[in-house]
Amino acid sequence: MKIDASKPLEYSTEENSNKIFGFWVFLGAEIPLFATLFTVYLVMVNRFASGPSGSEIFEIGPVLVETFLLLSSSFTIGLAIHAMRHGYKKAMMVFMAITLLMGLGFIGIEIDEFFTYVHEGATLQTSGFLSSLFVLLGTHGAHVSFGFLWGAGIMIQLWRHGITPATANKAFIFSLFWHFLDVVWIFIFSFVYLKGLM
Description:
This protein is an all-alpha fold. The protein is built from six helices and no strands. The protein is 80% helix and 0% strand.
């Protein structure tokens, strides 16, 4: 395995560069998935049947906390990658841990939000609006949950093996995934919650 010292560690081998390119292709395939879910939601957004509308069930407080947690975690994963590029393993681990804890907080609030909706009689079967809402939020939440487990696995590898071309590559690819989830959340925050509360 030939290492090119002139490149950042995550790009330092041909295999690493290919993996990053492959992951960009994967993220390109994720865009149509979320675009489809948003399209279905926007078609169903006014189909309440006998159930509540968004303005009746959405609460801005928890959504603002979710937004703060996820966008802040995008900053901390950036700091983790910055620390990685300077060889600061401890700082990298700390910033990754903060990122994952904020992701866990986001998931906890979203689960609580879902329980609140169901308690108020807003379920997947209530209306077209609610079914599309649950599927959109649930798909994003599942991605964040997977990201939490993936990031935890990378942290274990970093703790065992340190910052190597392989662990740097995995951490960088994870950071791309995490940033992508933040971008999707900005659309959810804008077109689901803010629009729904108006």
